[in-house]
Amino acid sequence: MKPEFENIPLIKNEEKKRFEIQYNGHFAFIDCKEMSRQIALIHTEAEPELSGTGAAAAVVEKTLMYIENSGKKLLPFCPYVFAFIKKHPEWKRIVDEKFEGYNQL
């Protein structure tokens, strides 16, 4: 994660069912579905003004930290999150072993 994102808090927006960060007045977020033992990450998006800043990667990494700290397992349905975990295989530790694409990570 780029240093400029380290101190930006992750917001769990219950109303919009997403995790988000705000940077320079714009949002990067991940739509999610939370269950009793798992959190499914469905879609990652950053507003166009954040393109190329690393905001999407930052919201993913912060969300993975949140999931790990919650003790829940990750279901990475979002292609961006899936690719992030392939690139950073240390995060596979929080992916639910029953996830269909687990062996491709």
Automatic annotation (TrEMBL):
What Pfam families has UniProt attached to this entry?
A: Acetyltransf_CG (PF14542)
Kindly give the InterPro entries that the UniProt entry links to this protein.
Acyl_CoA_acyltransferase, Gcn5-rel_NAT, GNAT_YJDJ
Which superkingdom heads the taxonomic lineage of this protein's source?
Bacteria
The terms under GO molecular function for this entry are:
transferase activity
Q: Keywords, A to Z?
A: Transferase
Tell me the ranges covered by the N-acetyltransferase domain, including all copies.
11-96
- Write down the PROSITE patterns for this protein, in alphabetical order: GNAT_YJDJ (PS51729)
Task: Please state what the protein is called.
Answer: Acetyltransferase
